[in-house]
Specification:
Number of helices: 3
Shape: globular
Strand order of the largest sheet: 1-2-3-4
Structural class: alpha+beta
Oligomer: single chain
Radius of gyration: 14 Å
Helix content: 25-40%
Length: 114
């Protein structure tokens, strides 16, 4: 496989890892608008044939980089991203608990989204 390219499909709410023209992994997320704007990752998925290659970690790192460039926090609900952030506090600032609570409420209010 060639190098992995990571692209942000904001309209679809997906950060995608693409290799050889195929999406081999993704983080599904939404943009929370209130109480403040934040990126909220909900699921991290890597195709079985591509597991163990660091793709999920690369996606998580890029999600935090996108948030930093936009000047917004990340409020992770995805278990993988939450664990990744705990292991990389220098790259993944902790989210305000209020943001995580608001993100959970948004998810409950939009049951068909994920």
């Amino acid at each position: 496989m060639s190098d992995i390219e990571i692209r942000d499909d904001r309209a679809a709410g997906r950060l995608e890892a693409v290799g050889d023209g195929d999406v081999v992994g993704r983080i599904e997320y939404f943009v929370l608008e209130s109480p403040e704007r934040a990126l909220v990752p909900v699921h991290t998925i890597v195709e079985p044939a591509h597991e163990g290659k660091g793709i999920a970690g690369s996606l998580a790192r890029e999600l935090y980089a996108v948030a930093a460039r936009e000047g917004v926090p990340v409020a992770p609900l995805c278990p993988y991203v939450t664990k990744w952030a705990e292991r990389h506090p220098d790259e993944a600032p902790q989210a305000d608990p209020e943001l995580r609570r608001a993100a959970k409420e948004w998810l409950v209010a939009h049951p068909g989204r994920f």
